[in-house]
Amino acid sequence: MAKKCVSCGTDLPNDAGFCTECGAQQPEVRLCKQCGALLEKDALFCGECGAKYEDPNKQQTERPVIKATPVTELKEEKKWTTSQMISIAVGVLVVLFLVIAIFNGVGENKGAVKKAEETQAISVKAETIIDDYIRDQAKAEKEYKDKKIELTGKVSSKGQYRNSQDYYVTVGRRMAAGKSYYVLLRIPSKMAGKLNKLHIGDYVSAEGVCQGIVEQEDPTDVSIQIPAQKINEND
Q1: CA distances in angstroms from 158 to 12, 22, 146, 223, listed in the order given
Q2: 46: burial class by Cβ within 10 Å (0-12, 13-18, 19+)?
Q3: Smallest Cα–Cα separation from 148: which of 215, 231, 227?
Q4: Contact criterion met (CB below 8 Å) for 53 and 46
Q5: Burial of 137 (0-12, 13-18, 19+ CB in 10 A)
């Protein structure tokens, strides 16, 4: 059965989208796939053969979704600009300079200790060192740091350093201007026998290269340390 134009009534093919006489747009026609009969707009079954109407558009939307295999993205090779290459080169040179400076500093420090060991020792009392540091700390550092010292003092305390196998002996201590000044002998573990012979109140003589002020957690503690190479050699 052919359809008619909705505007002028002219007979038209079922698949016509527009009228050949008046040009009016035609509504979509639903045809039975079984017998080809024209179906009503909302009909679910064919009025001629009874076949169930299946909407082709609905079937199309209900097709299974096929997932595409992900394709590995090809990354474009990064090209360095001239300014970036210069920045990298400068950074490498700065790091290299710092490494060289650190090694030179370590070498200079070892050289200073070795030189101090070869020079004549300064004979001084622990109390005198404390007096000098209280009076002028910068001048005292210049006078004693990295110098070979022959030290005498009175043992007021002894113990072991935290996170170290070395021991310490306090041979001078005084409070001044809200700060605590200490003179400490640093005793390596191999000299523990010498340490065991020392008692609180004993007088001690030692020799070593002064490290000057060693920074402490409490900024009010001024710790002047001397790694001992000799202790009571005359005993």
Answers
A1: 117, 118, 23, 14
A2: buried
A3: 227
A4: yes
A5: middle
Helix, strand, or coil here: 130?
A: helix
| Residue 169, CA distances (Å) to 96, 115, 154 in order | 41, 25, 9
Q: How far from the centroid of its chain's Cα atoms is residue 99's Cα?
A: 20
pLDDT one digit per residue (tens) for the chain, 235 residues: 467 777 888 877 777 777 788 877 777 777 777 887 776 667 677 777 877 767 666 544 445 555 555 555 555 566 778 888 888 888 899 998 888 878 776 665 555 555 555 678 899 999 999 999 999 999 999 999 999 999 999 999 999 998 889 999 999 999 999 999 999 999 999 988 888 999 999 999 999 999 999 999 999 999 999 999 999 887 5
CB-side exposure of 129: number of CA atoms within 13 Å?
33
- Bin 175: left if φ > 0, else alpha if -120 < ψ < 50, else beta: beta
Q: What is the DSSP secondary structure assignment for residue 190, as one 8-state letter?
A: G
Give the whole-angstrom CA distance, residue 147 versus residue 113.
Answer: 8
Q: Max CA-CA distance within the chain? A: 137
Specify whether the CB–CB gap between 209 and 148 falls below 8 A: yes
- Measure the CA angle with vertex 187, ends 182 and 189; round to 5°: 145
pTM of the model: 0.50
| Dihedral sign for Cα atoms in the order 160, 125, 131, 147 | negative
